[in-house]
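task queued by scheduler; priority normal; single chain, no ligands, no partner chains; default sampling; output format set to structure tokens
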Amino acid sequence: MQFDFFKYQGTGNDFVLINNHKLSFPKDNHSLIKHLCDRRFGIGADGLMLLEAAEGMDFKMVYYNADGNESTMCGNGGRCISAFAKYLGIAENKGKFIAVDGEHDFIIEDDIVKLKMIDVNASGILQNSNDYVLFTGSPHYVSFRTEIEQLNIIDEAHKIRYNDIYSKEGINVNFTEVNAGKILMRTYERGVEDETLSCGTGTVAVALSFAEKNNLEKGTVEIQTPGGKLAVSFSKHGSIFTDVWLEGPAKLVFTGTIEV
């Protein structure tokens, strides 16, 4: 089998994208998807996405983690696949697609893609004074720490990712630090089972946790990931964060054909 593929990245979070309008890709072949995401024996990526047709929408997004399994929403992936749809001529600068967690609007301005995320209920997300758990399209654990650049993220994330509470379903673990007015974050992603340079739904989780921690009702929070800067805007009504938008660059890296 041969497949044409497109490699995209959003602040270092990288993806293999395939146009699956003809439904020719073997979606249940999880070992193939894992192989394509392998950085030594395949193309290499944090995940793989299929762009498919969807009635009443510009397209449908189907997302797989690097372990080959279909997963929950990926924010940076959503921004990259929106750019991909425009590249293919399937979508314009503004549009809407359907993903596993529902509908998402997007706006494209040059290399910058803004993606509307789902509403988030802030009720009960606080675990203690420094830790939050919330669902932003994917499940996230957010821990406010100091000196996160020196943090052994694998060891610290495993204490949360593989504990009795989260080991079965898995959870993404984000460590964040507020330093000299800047918000820094590092993410360990389930399904990749490693640190990634950026995580879109994780950035939203950190931004909304920061807003909840500081009693912010509305605004835009800029966050520095190892792969670049992202911005999250929001409004809060009661305990619900609404009108949540994730904004940052999404770029085509290269295209190719692979035989498997």
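post-processing summary
- The chain has two domains: 2-106+250-259, 120-249.
- Residues 23 and 52 are 7 Å apart (CA to CA).
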